[in-house]
Amino acid sequence: MSAKNKLTLTVQYADTRLQESITRPNIRKWVQAALFAPAELTIRFVDAGEGQALNREYRGKDYATNVLTFAYNEGEEELPEDAPTQADIILCTDVLEQEAAEQKKTVEEHTAHLIVHGVLHAQGYDHMDDEEAAEMEGIETEILAQLGYADPYAD
């Protein structure tokens, strides 16, 4: 691992349903593939109740969503250049499994996509307008292809 991509990773299974199938080594591989700088990240799997509570409290949206990224040093101007990206990435197992079924994807490939998506958010990428969305989707598709997964945005 290059110094540029040094990673401190914590994985929490508050919702244990995916603990056996979505393993820490795979999560580390997916996170590392999406990192462009050092990072200290926590990946946490939650149920719909916790996901909804977090989304309501921090985004004002009263429903569980697939992934939430809390980037702690985003926008900080006083940080040293080599300061790691620090973030919590929350995945809601209920929504993740439902979306995977609806999109006819495996839970593994959808989880890989959501983790890559969350890691990019942690590093400042966003999809607030069409240009940003196209850039972020292109990066996600490229990373997932390198990991052996199909384009998540293909119809």
TrEMBL record:
Instruction: Relate the protein's function as given in its record.
Output: Single strand-specific metallo-endoribonuclease involved in late-stage 70S ribosome quality control and in maturation of the 3' terminus of the 16S rRNA.
- Please state the protein's primary subcellular location: cytoplasm
Instruction: From the UniProt record, report the name of the gene that encodes this protein.
Output: ybeY
Q: What is the lineage of its organism?
A: Bacteria, Pseudomonadati, Pseudomonadota, Betaproteobacteria, Burkholderiales
Give its localization. Cytoplasm
Documented EC number(s): 3.1.-.-
Q: Which family does it belong to?
A: Belongs to the endoribonuclease YbeY family.
State whether keyword Hydrolase applies: yes
User: Could you tell me the keywords of this UniProt record?
Assistant: Cytoplasm, Endonuclease, Hydrolase, Metal-binding, Nuclease, Ribosome biogenesis, rRNA processing, Zinc
Chain sites annotated for binding Zn(2+)? 117, 121, 127
Q: Which PANTHER family match?
A: ENDORIBONUCLEASE YBEY, CHLOROPLASTIC
Cofactor info, note text: Binds 1 zinc ion.
Record's protein name: Endoribonuclease YbeY
| A Pfam family of this chain | YbeY
Needed cofactors? Zn(2+)
Q: Do you know which InterPro entries this protein is assigned to? A: MetalPrtase_cat_dom_sf_prd (IPR023091), YbeY (IPR002036), YbeY_CS (IPR020549)
Family matches, as PROSITE patterns = UPF0054
